[in-house]
Amino acid sequence: MAEKPKKQITLADAYNLVTPDDSRELYAQWAPTYDKTFIEDNKYVYPAKIAAVLAKHMPSDRSFSVIDIGCGTGAVGEEIATIRPKSVIEGVDISPEMLAVAATKLRQDGTKVYEDLHEADLTGTIYFAANYYDFFVSAGTFTIGHLGAYELIDAITVCRSGATIVAGVNQQHWEDDDFASAITEAVDNKTITKPQYEEVDIYGEGSTHFGDKARVVVFKKL
User: Which domains are present in the chain?
Assistant: First the structure.
């Protein structure tokens, strides 16, 4: 009997994730084709949009340490390495298979995009770093079926005091998970500065998902 063809993974599958194990299983299957079947086929412009916001807050003449939260196959890192080539970028993701793809990504000079990569479940305690990075960046991780508002605040423990956080949050997820309350609480607790906001497209024109927006929240860790 012929083997039944595997169902192509879609955005709906990612939005339906519930547990960390669900994420590991899905992205283990998706990693080999993710760049083509998701990023390319869906005109996923989010990484470039987030990197452009980050660049507004990062001088180009110096080297800074950057942690890419939920780096996946490295799309955000590639964008940062292009527009801020002095950056020393590290990535973290729950999926070792996605990290393996990210490890293959190269800068224009042939060196690796990522200085180091960390496998971690950010719904739990963070062990790979504390009070270290100058910049925190994320696109696609704070979204439906993935990380929530309080996990964003918890994750900034990896950054030093004064670090700049540039986190993209799916607009629907922002509202559903009440990110506004978590941000207000962190400001009131003097954990972070009062944030700035931008709105960006997640997908480009011609994508079936065109029109989906993300709120980019920018603040400093106190």
Answer: 11-220 (3.40.50.150)
